[in-house]
């Protein structure tokens, strides 16, 4: 309609950043406040003035006031039940509601809001000016300002003058104000303030909203406050103005509906023949239409003024909370009043704000768009917006804030479902890979998008029943998984789809039918289906997400536990008869059978003994497992069999004896096979076939020995003799030696378990200790071999056995103390040498060269690097456990601590854990070990070549080690003093023959990195110790002076602060902080191939999100304004020019006030101009542009397109609970 379209007809012109105001704003600031007319008769409503509308209109027309606008009448929107205070006021008492009463009600919450608004309306109807003054003071108090607008100020000052006075008298106690107060109070106050604005408009919607005084005056004040440099004023007034605007939009929508209905009634009546018309009815309808049209025009004027005066400037405010409020409410306006707002002139603000640097603002923008795309009737009006901003929306699926990315994926799903064009396959390709993301919410949203796409494809083929639909679903899902090329991540795909496709993924019958029927699927498709089926089984049985997607420990609810138990029973019932058939079909396929062998681990195994007919299926399963062991030699398959053997042989099941018997028979067969060839192998006369047969039998025995006790078959002597003979002859066959070492080691481990659970004789203990000593000697010899796998295997087994047979392991068993085996000095040296030669080295390329063929290098090099790193981490953890549990002395940890800084990325968590555990064992000795590690590095530097760069690296290591002592300085007092004393002694030790005097004095530079952790008494003690330990001539040497300064730093800094306090007050000499700058072009542009072919830059120019605060011309003295101290209320700071606030590389020039200037200014009598300047400097303390806070909290470069892509979880190595796994 015409009036509606004219309300915001100039919005297309609002995109210019130079538009700093409006006719409404300028007129309301420059003219006197209009006083309400006092008359007993309802005054005639004049046409709206130009100040209110921002446009000219005829002034001669007047219309009758609608019923109830006079101060004596009761508003139709107020409650008929008045409080006691209102009753007393109406009876003539002077007590009326105050600004503090309203503020307290807002702070308490929403409960009493209607009553509070009714009371205020009663007071407003008795005296409009007094009521408005109460409301203004409430707004001022809500801003956190302690100033009060008096009646004299209200009558004699304009809004700009009032705001200026309040700004000068703000007198805040802290930088916080009610809308930014941390804690639950913030949510309560904000909700109460928004509710107050909503109830106020609702209560006035039929009368006072049209009185041309209340809302125009209120909105004029809020518009002025929203342009203030004081953050509290700007934030609070913007929130109130925007919320009032939302209420006005609601009223305008109702009035528009009433106007349309009445106009239709008038047209119907007017279309009748002359003698059928009711003239009175026609005149009444015509008057009503005229009145409603004027009401609509007045509402449009206020809406237009608020939009132009507040929203257009504050949607790009420097405070993200203000920008977020504006965009959130804009989304409501677009949805509530599409006739006025849903056009390109308003939608452009959403498009621009998608480039905002703060994720909460982008989040509000995306949510606003979701509300629009949910409405079918809006799609046509969104076509241009969709075409221009779709590319930007697609790029935001990689937003650095996962919450924003989740909402963007949901928005794209709406676009896909609601719009005719939807998304093409290339655009969908932006979203598909996110199902493998490590963030579970984002992956689930992408899973919902993928499921919707799959279902649309299935629906288009119109399958006749659910079974056929599920079969088609699996076929398409298999195809997607193959084409996505993210293999070994099936668990993450299943988890992403679980919340939307749970019923399909639980269709075990369809999956097993596919697998048991021939020629249904290709070989690769069968493997994918088996992997997805096993992942679905795990997800249903365990009801937990895969590794990397767990967000804290979340206990299952009773409902979830019940569903889990039901799923587990259904899985067991379905797969017990079918699993032997599947194993028989895929028994020769190592990859598939490895997956199928995991299925019984998720069964309710008690069901095997619940019915007699199920026992035959157990026998079939055991038979298949034994057959698979005899058929395969792959380590992964044999390990899967071992896990199943361990589960089925558990004593907690009644059928465990049947399983143990079956596996004992399998052990007999394998042992007999090995015994057949062992003599020939020992004598060296076995041919290649015999060697292969003996090695494969031994490999199977070694795999099963991890799950079943092999000591009854007495294979240790044979394996040990075999190892000795091969070491002597140097015939290092990896396929034979590795399983022999494992068999011997498992024998010793099971033997230790057996002697702990029984009462062995002394002879048995001696024989076992002899076996341990012999095996450790063989493993020690293997540490010097060039065979990587044999060497690594020997190191890992040594760490396990030394820990298992350590003194601490038998301390609680006096009878077994004879079993304790301590490593020899040579073995300790070999272990330390292994650490330095093969763990703390960059030898990945050398090792990969020996493992991979040239064709494999390009494909699997990265994967092998990850495996090598994981192997090194396990080896380092094994060595650290020997230190922590006392097998090795604490000083052996120096070889670990020395590499803390250099290898922090790969092993930092393990070394840090070792440091913390060593402090629990012996804090003083741990500190001395840290010092010893630094001494060793320093000595190595001197023996090789003295380099300043090497000294800097050692100092960097010292800094990192110093941080490990924590913040409780009293607890680490003794360890730190011991560390410093050891360091001082080392620095001034007596020189050896051929050395220069005091060669280690530079070590004091390294030691100074630990001084900041010392308490003051210890500093003095160490200073005296230094003077006694070093020669008198050395006190002037630079390292000694540097160390002395580090000991005196705290005392000196305190003295300096006291002197500064005596000379210059803190508020006159604030500390200047350096502004952080963000380097441009540092973001990574690495992207998956699925995104390489598309552009992510919007074709529209993005406006700078800057403040539009109007400032006075810059003065020369502005460059002298110092930075503030946050705790100093009267500190000063400056606000940068609005055009530069969001410049990434902005460097601000700051100059401290020198003492001479301060002294002269304090001695001389200030001139009026200086007084004015001082008042402005004090005034600036109220301005919120805290540059350091803005840099840290707000101006954060948005790199959603490049540096924060989706993260693929690893199925091989994860940081989750890795230390628990390594150290437990």
From TrEMBL:
Disordered: annotated segments: 1-87, 1051-1147, 1188-1213
GO cellular component: chromatin; chromosome, centromeric region; cohesin complex; nucleus
Domain SCD: 311-396
Keyword Ribosomal protein: no
InterPro entries associated with the record: ARM-type_fold (IPR016024), Cohesin_Scc3/SA (IPR039662), HEAT_SCC3-SA (IPR056396), SCD (IPR020839), STAG (IPR013721)
GO annotation, biological process: cell division; chromosome segregation; sister chromatid cohesion
GO MF annotation: an example: chromatin binding
Main localization, broad class: nucleus
Alphabetical keyword list: Cell cycle, Cell division, Chromosome, Chromosome partition, Coiled coil, Nucleus
Subunit text: Part of the cohesin complex which is composed of a heterodimer between a SMC1 protein (SMC1A or SMC1B) and SMC3, which are attached via their hinge domain, and RAD21 which link them at their heads, and one STAG protein.
Family assignment from sequence similarity: Belongs to the SCC3 family.
Protein name: Cohesin subunit SA
